[in-house]
Amino acid sequence: MSLKKMFRGESTKAVHPITFMFLYLPFGIFNGYTSVTLGFLLTKAGVPLSGVASIVALPYLPNILKFLWAPLVDTTLTVKKWYHIANIGTAAGILATSVVPLNSSFLPVLMAVVLLTALANTNIAMTTEILIAQDVPEEEKGRAGGWLQAGNLGGFGVGGGAGIWLAERLSAPWMSGAIIALISLLCGLGLLFLKEPEPFKREENYLKTVGILLKDIWILIKSRAGFLALVLCFLPIGSGAASSLWSSISGNWNASPDAVALAVGVVGGVASAVGCLVGGWICDRMDRKKAYILFGLLEGAVAIMMAISPRTQLMFVIWTSIYAVTVGFAYAGFSAFVLEAIGRMGAATKYNVFAALSNIPIYFMIFVDEWAHGKWSSTGLLIAEAVMPVLGAALFISVFVLSRMKPAAVREV
For this UniProt entry, what is the primary localization, expressed as one broad class (predicted)? Predict the structure, then answer.
């Protein structure tokens, strides 16, 4: 392929799915920087856990509601233009958060910056999902979903671990934000290796175009496969919510800032990325919904083992790293069963109907974990992480059995 064609995005050759990992990295980087780096720095500045949780949980709100503006990405501009707009907004927001003073007085300002950046950041996910839905054959959706989530969770580790490491060593807070923002911008180079996707069918009347898209979504949800996927997204099975609070509770294990940066940053990012790739490989070799449930139960088992282990820095690094692997499994499983369900066209809206629901249990679990921590310290938090996947799996199995007993209630199309 010539350089001229590459820069125009005219390549017709299928690219390695690692490209999608790089494109998805800014989505994870922002969430990691917000959850881990800001969470750590706010805790260090004396902000109570309730205030930290409000910042950590805030990016999930746009991710819950992003299906509302996903049709714009499917039906206006081009996918690559939307990606560049989102990536520039994400980088600018990361830089802005490093300028706002980190104390209780400025929490409202910080919340506003985080919320606006999160709104832009959602479009990183949507555009990459369109690209992967159209470029990857059906039998490789599990593998591709693994690479996609490797970018998500690997980026979380970069934004979190590298963010803490840089913030602890650089003289001015904005420097770490500027470096993380630059890394996010460079990830957009992955677009050079992909052609512009086929656009969704567009009518002269925009509302008619949206109507066609919504009809496709309704047909998907009415199918048994779509309905079961929707239910599975709503349950707290593989949320990985504790990852957002590790830096805030690391003191219970006497973990140093460097150990936290290592555990939730470099090691955690690599561990979760490996988990994504292995999980994606497994999903191409068994039922993808069953794989997701299995991965969520493994995540809960690791939380129990961490709860009964000694509270030492070494145990903190070991168990958070193993937990990161299981979170990678679960995230790959999620992408695999959703990509399987949605098909090729209208991918941003369809995928994000499911993704929006999947963020509800993550958002909910952060506050469940915070509540359990307030009641029973870190042990309570970890037990909550173990109990909820079991309850979620039991609920899904019940729905699955009922859907087989009453096929007329959920019509296959």
Answer: membrane
DSSP 201: P
In angstroms, the CA 154 to CA 389 distance is 23
Cα(314)–Cα(130) distance, rounded to whole angstroms?
41
**Are 190 and 48 spatial neighbours (Cβ–Cβ below 8 Å)?**
no
The full set of domain ranges for the chain reads: 8-405
Please state, in angstroms and rounded to a whole number, the distance separating the CA atoms of residues 221 and 213.
Answer: 13
What gap in Å lies between CA 268 and CA 160, rounded to an integer? 10
φ, ψ of residue 214 to 5 degrees: the values are -65, -35
The separation between CA 31 and the C-alpha centre of its own chain, rounded to angstroms, equals: 8
- Tens digit of each residue's pLDDT (9 = 90 or more) over 57-77: 888 788 878 888 888 888 888
Token pair for residue 145? 């979903």
What are the distances in angstroms from CA 366 to CA 31, 159, 220? 14, 19, 30
> What is the rounded distance in angstroms from the CA atom of residue 80 to the CA atom of residue 182?
19
Please state, in angstroms and rounded to a whole number, the distance separating the CA atoms of residues 383 and 378: 9
What is the full DSSP assignment across 188-244?
Answer: GGGGGGSPPPPPPP--SSHHHHHHHHHHHHHHHHHSHHHHHHHHHHHSSSS--GGGG
Class of domain 8-405: mainly alpha
pLDDT in tens, 320-337: 999 999 999 998 998 888
- Convert the pLDDT of each residue in 146-186 to its tens digit: 888 888 878 887 888 788 888 888 877 788 889 999 999 99
Q: Which pTM does this prediction carry?
A: 0.73
Residue among 268, 246, 235 nearest 388 (CA):
235
Phi-psi region for residue 254, left (φ > 0), alpha (ψ -120 to 50) or beta?
Answer: left
